[in-house]
Amino acid sequence: MVVGPLKEATYDSISLERxxxxxxxxxxxxxxxxxxxxxxxxxxxxxxxxxxxxxxxxVPKTNVSQDPKTVSWKSxxxxxxxxxxxxxxxxxxxxxxxxxxxxxxxxxxxMAKMLVASMRLTIRRVLSLLAMILEGIVDELIYQLEFxxxxxxxxxxxxxxxxxxSYQLLSHILASVFGASVTFLVxxxxxxxxx
Length: 195
Prior knowledge:
This protein is mainly alpha-helical. The chain has six helices and no strands. The chain is elongated.
């Protein structure tokens, strides 16, 4: 060695630990640096006199052409595509996708139209369900009230003795007077009546 902290030292006199440090980084002498790297490499390789036992393969090798999984995956894929094509909704979705790709509208406008259409359909279905439920509740309420009132009425009254015409005339007159008064009050409020 001519230069550096190990000046005038022979290669054989330097300890193994100093050689390891020099193999990592030694700026004083480039040739010594190369020697240290080679020596450490050989020393590490010499330490492994026995070769490691090779690992056994995890999956035994089989002939690829005889393996049924590799042969039939294409046929299974073809069968799955054929079954999908038989479904009507899949053909419609594919048709809509192709038309969308051909017309190329903005993705946001397509999504907005689909969202609006789905929301309208959902609201329409929910409201029709609520209307059916409400109608069923009102029908049941009417039936219960009618059943309760029929049970409270006397049963020995004959219907021939009841005067119907006077009752109908009186209710007709009361309803007419009420309707006329409501109309008159609404028109006064709007200012349409002239004095």
